[in-house]
Amino acid sequence: MMTSILWLWTTLALAAVCYSLHSLFFTKRERLPPGPKGLPIIGNLHMLGKNPHQDLAKLAKKHGPIMYMQFGFVPVIIVSSPEAAEKFLKTYDQVFASRPYHEGSWYVGYEQRNLSFAEYGPYWRNMRKLCILQLLSSHKINSFQYMRTQEVGILVESLKQAAFDGASVDLSALISSLGVNMSCLMIFGKKYMDNDFGDRGFKEVIQEVLHVAAIPNLGDYFPLLGVLDVQGITRQFKALAKVFDTFFEKIIDDHLQSSEHKQTKDFVDIMMGIIESGASEFEFDRRHVKAVLLDMLIGSMDTSVTAVEWAISELLRHPEATRKLQKELEEKIGLERIVEESDLEGLEYLDVVIKESMRLHPVAPLLLPHESIKDCTVDGFQIQKKSRIIINIYAIGRDPNIWPDPESFIPERFSGNNIDLRGQDFRLIPFGSGRRSCPGLQLGLTVVRFVLAQLVHCFNWSLADNTEPTDLDMSEVFGLVTSRAKHLNVIPTYRLHK
Ligand code: HEM
């Protein structure tokens, strides 16, 4: 213990000297964007609390939409307006299209071979092309439509039973399981149960990765501290990497040994087919397959269902909006049958509810971090090579200069205008924009629209424990996916005639 404390102090002292020399000789403060003053060594890290997106939004109000901060030795640029976001994600897209070093992805993502954290370059470009063409194309997404209908049907049946029993349900837990099941079926071809991941539950392990990956890791900002692993995060990542690797190896072996003839090929089948055929134009072996599987799992499992959870929460607080959405669904589908994916086109009110919910509750409020690949001047400010770029879409979504009455849930603000959420309009970019934008947008949006429509069409909802809609706690837990802090306990009433 004493030795590690001694080590820590020695490292900090060394770091202090390096920091002072670095600031003295290399930092050209006068050309940097404005920003809050930092402390020696740690810079501005102490200004981040449990919900960094909220802290950064407050700071940006004072310092402006392009703000300079320092996290340890890393220069960080916080972007908090649509105009500034357009500069970073469109005008100079290529300069800012890389990702910074991320210890979690290094260990768990096969040395950052995963698409989401791969550095910008030919490998990332090839991998992204492969994923979009082979896994996330419209054709591929449609081939899983049957599976989605079946899984959402199972959820509706269990809610229907609860409705007949007059019981309350933990909707957060139920839709989270739906997310896990749909992802596993699409990626691995089967559902995984709680005892399928060593002695720990499948979901528990995935959630640990999401949680640990979101903890501010000193190793990402102070290379020396990374080596000492004072927070114990590296140890945790290494252990998780082992668990995942064993799991993925087993899945791949099972697929290779299986002689089953499948109508719909899952993602493992497709990836292994690419290795066998030698069709990929770049180095592509088991490590790459495992890295992509991890990406698809983490990308798909929690994102869409968390978006549904936020939308349902807002609808619970706004019965008028719920009635309007139910009316739209009744006019289009009636009450004699359930919603099908083919009904989703032209549900205008559903779309504006989703936009409004994603404006207030973006699933990834800071997107994923970007990194500059060279020095660049933006709006007259010097942005150094290897700066970390954080786009705060939470701040953009709640800016009163863009959105009148920004804290209120008013879906109608999107009616009759063409503000879209697919990355063309920088006021609303829940999936990012440009080269690093979300390749799973179409799949994600399909799931959000389908599950939300189904839940609102089939049931009326009231809050359990006599909670008034206005008292519903809307606190957030920041993470790679930012979800509700408190589970949604609700009582369903079935409203269809069949
Ligand atoms: C509602 C659902 C979803 C939302 C809101 C969402 C949001 C995002 C955001 C904000 C980013 C980062 C963009 C940036 O850094 O500029 C991202 C990246 C990514 N998403 Fe999604 N996502 C969703 C669903 C999905 C799904 C279903 C998948 C895959 C099955 C997926 C896979 C990915 C991947 C691989 C990346 C990294 C792309 C790259 O770095 O090139 N996402 N997503």
Question: How does this model look, in words?
Answer:
By secondary structure, the protein is an alpha+beta fold. The protein has one domain: Cytochrome p450, CATH 1.10.630.10. The chain has 19 helices and 11 strands. It has helices at residues 2-26, 52-63, 82-91, 103-108, 122-134, 138-143, 145-165, 171-188, 202-214, 218-221, 223-228, 233-257, 267-277, 286-301, 303-317, 319-333, 348-360, 393-397, 441-458; strands at residues 66-71, 74-79, 169-170, 370-371, 376-378, 381-383, 388-391, 459-463, 476-477, 483-484, 489-494. The strands form 4 sheets. Strands 1-2-7-4 form a 4-stranded mixed sheet. Strand 9 (476-477) and strand 10 form a beta hairpin. Helix 8 (171-188) runs antiparallel to helix 14 (286-301) and helix 8 packs antiparallel against helix 15. Mean pLDDT is 90; it is low at 1-8. Bound molecules: protoporphyrin IX containing FE. The site of protoporphyrin IX containing FE (HEM) has 25 residues, from helix 14, helix 15 and helix 19. Residues 1-20 form the signal peptide. Its cofactor is heme. This is Cytochrome P450 CYP736A12-like.
Q: Please bin the fraction of helical residues.
A: 40-55%
What is the straight-line distance between the termini? Answer: 66 Å
Which strands sit side by side, in order, in the main sheet? 1-2-7-4
| SSE-based structural type | alpha+beta
How many separate domains make up the residues?
Answer: 1
Question: Mind summarizing the main beta sheet?
Answer: 4 strands, mixed
CATH class: Mainly Alpha
Number of DSSP helices?
A: 19
Which small compounds were modeled alongside the protein?
protoporphyrin IX containing FE
* Tally of strands: 11
Low-pLDDT stretches are 1-8
* CATH architectural grouping: Orthogonal Bundle
Looking at CATH, the homologous superfamily is Cytochrome P450
Overall pLDDT = 90
Radius of gyration: 23 Å
Percent of residues in beta strands: 5-15%
SSE pattern, N- to C-terminal: HHEEHHHHHEHHHHHHHHHHEEEEHHEEEE
Classify the fold: give the CATH topology. Answer: Cytochrome p450
The shape is: globular
